[in-house]
Amino acid sequence: MTSASPIAALVSAAAEGDQSAWNEIVDRYTPLVVSVIYKHRLRPADAADVNQTLWLRLVEQIGRLREPEALPGWIMTTTRNECLRVLRVQQRTHLYDPLSESDALESEQVDADVEAELLAVERRQALREGFAELTDQCKRLLTKLMTDPPPSYQVVSEELAMPVGSIGPTRIRCLEKLRKTPAIAAFLGSPVKRGGVLGAARLGQ
After folding, report:
1. What pLDDT does 111 receive?
2. Which residue numbers in the chain have pLDDT < 50?
3. 14, 29, 98, 167: which could join 21 in a potential S-S bond, CB 3.0 to 4.6 Å?
4. Distance CA 186, CA 4 (A)
């Protein structure tokens, strides 16, 4: 029987009332919540309400999550839905010309921009979660190879004390391990098309 992933173990402990687990979840995912809220350009009071509502809903639902490894995605989606709910309420208070074509086009562009930004936020979070589960060797190697511009294999060999011939195969194995981590697997398993995520992504960006 395989052991639970770090995220699943954290969720399980929090669901059982472990305060330290709750504290770690809040510390780890507050930047994600803040990022999603920021992308929606909410007013400070509304942003505070969304943040509070998100954590209250997690308290209610954490014991019912069918896929604990997907917690980052659940947090992002729930925060996004709360932001959109607040924005819909705000829109009802503003009068506008329903026949204005420019307003409709602007709204569509904003929606597209928000979706793209949210996808980027989710990708970065998944990469951070997956990267944290790799071995030290993989972390060091991928960090070196994903700098911009990337160093030559000779430089990497000297700095990491690795044979030049082993760098390429080791890199492939490390990327495969990264792809199989729960966070990346959940991200790639989303119905949204995400071609070339690992190839194009820069860790930590």
Report:
1. 57
2. 1, 95, 99, 191-205
3. 14
4. 15
CA 34, 36, 39, 42: dihedral to nearest 10 degrees? Answer: -70
Which segments of 32-186 are extended strands (E)? none
CB 14 within 8 A of CB 62: yes
| pLDDT for the residue numbered 163 | 92
pLDDT at 119: 66
Give the C-alpha separation, 173 to 166, whole Å: 11
Nearest to residue 174, comparing CAs of 126, 139, 129? 139
Measured CA to CA, the distance from residue 193 to residue 87 in angstroms comes to 26
- Phi and psi torsions of 203, nearest 5°: -60, 135
Per-residue pLDDT, 168: 86
**Chain length of the chain:** 205
Residue with the two structure tokens 């792809």: 179
The answer to whether the CB of 38 falls within 8 A of the CB of 83 is: no
* Closest to 53 in 3D by CA, of 75, 21, 27, 31: 75
Q: Within 13 Å, how many C-alpha atoms sit on residue 89's CB side?
A: 9
Give SS3 for 179: helix
At residue 79, the pLDDT reads 92
For the chain, domain boundaries? 6-133
CATH code reported for the domain at 6-133? 1.10.1740.10
